Design the sequence.
């Protein structure tokens, strides 16, 4: 029988899911618009990758400095500034288009997302546990995944269609998302807190990142999977729209947004459908499908095939979503309970480095080398990392998990 308190937490669960999804969607919204900035201000593909990398760096910095603070001060105390930072970034996008401001807006957005991701995920889990104490936690995990990965996927497709059909393409998408985030902030005020702030003596420290010596082979394998998975997410939200317009000669912003959505949407679906799979099953499936997706991406660029790029995006999404889920599951299994938070922080930081470093290197390479050898080099590097990860997975399985 439900009580007023449980109903209050149940409503709060869906309100947090809304603000989580809306803010993540805003973070993904610029993907189909980079081509417009490039056309307006003469940006090169390398400049686009730097703008995108500013976001990933902001996320990594925030994860390291503030991602753990909601455990101490409460979920809402971190959610509000996290969303506000993205509102500020949205206002900056609406006001200025110069490169320096775009870099600053993406970095500020990344800072907010780094604070939001772990906090909102934990808040959803706690709200669900209080609202439905006898239910499986799987529902909270599915909704959290849908809001996180699915939200990032919705951002480009909504922004792309608004840019294509609603007029003022560099203003309308941001105005819509700023409105949604402000509505989300009001919603957060109605959500119950699930953490009692500590009152004992406390000294600030950044999130420690530690990997027990016995788990390092398994962690490195998981980290490489996270690195490659996020690298492909980064590729489809930074350079893929430029390839679509420049190499494949398709200038539709709606189409660019749809392709980005296909990657994140398929990743979210894959993570949901494999929710009960053990890491021993997730690993080989994620490795194999991600490798196939990488080959298809390279083939699509070499063949200048839109249809093949769409298929590649879906396959990459399924592979990356499954591979990253395997990486998280493996780290949770490998690390002792006292070090799980720190080890997961290390995994996420490696993942966001993967979202920035490879696409920057590819952007640099494209300044001096033709697109075909550049994309081949990118694919070979990613496949080499996947091969090494597969080898380390096999090695790690021969070692006992930590208690």
Sequence:
């Amino acid at each position: 029988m439900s009580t007023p308190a449980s109903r209050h937490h149940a409503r709060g669960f869906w309100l947090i899911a809304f603000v989580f999804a809306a803010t993540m969607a805003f973070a993904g919204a610029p993907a189909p618009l980079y081509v417009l900035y490039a056309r307006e201000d003469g940006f090169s593909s390398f400049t686009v990758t730097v703008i995108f990398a500013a976001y990933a760096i902001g996320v990594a910095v925030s994860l390291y400095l503030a991602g753990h603070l909601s455990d101490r001060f409460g979920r809402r105390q971190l959610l509000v500034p996290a969303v506000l930072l993205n509102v500020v970034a949205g206002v900056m996008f609406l006001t200025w288009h110069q490169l320096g401001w775009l870099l600053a807006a993406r970095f500020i957005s990344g800072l907010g997302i780094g604070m939001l991701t772990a906090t909102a995920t934990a808040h959803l889990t706690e709200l669900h546990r209080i609202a439905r104490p006898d239910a499986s936690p799987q529902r909270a995990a599915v909704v959290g995944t849908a809001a996180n990965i699915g939200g990032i996927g919705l951002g480009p497709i909504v922004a792309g269609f608004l840019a294509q059909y609603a007029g003022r393409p560099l203003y309308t998408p941001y105005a819509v998302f700023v409105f949604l985030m402000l509505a989300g902030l009001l919603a957060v005020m109605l959500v119950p807190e699930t953490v009692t702030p500590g009152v004992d003596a406390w000294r600030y420290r950044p999130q420690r990142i530690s990997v027990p010596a016995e788990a390092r082979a398994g962690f490195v394998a998981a980290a490489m999977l996270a690195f490659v998975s996020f690298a492909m997410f980064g590729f489809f939200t930074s350079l893929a729209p430029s390839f679509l317009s420049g190499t494949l000669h398709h200038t539709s912003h709606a189409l660019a947004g749809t392709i980005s959505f296909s990657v994140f949407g398929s990743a979210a679906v894959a993570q949901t459908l494999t929710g009960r799979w053990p890491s021993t099953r997730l690993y080989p499936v994620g490795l194999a499908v991600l490798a196939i997706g990488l080959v298809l991406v390279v083939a699509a660029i070499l063949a200048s095939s839109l249809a093949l790029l769409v298929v590649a995006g879906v396959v990459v999404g399924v592979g990356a979503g499954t591979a990253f889920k395997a990486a998280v599951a493996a780290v949770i299994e490998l690390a002792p309970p006292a070090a799980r938070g720190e080890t997961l922080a290390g995994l996420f930081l490696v993942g966001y480095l993967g979202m920035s470093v490879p696409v920057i290197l590819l952007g640099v390479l494209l300044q001096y080398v033709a697109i075909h050898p550049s994309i081949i080099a990118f694919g070979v590097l990613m496949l080499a990392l996947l091969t090494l990860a597969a080898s380390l997975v096999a090695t790690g399985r021969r070692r006992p998990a930590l208690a």
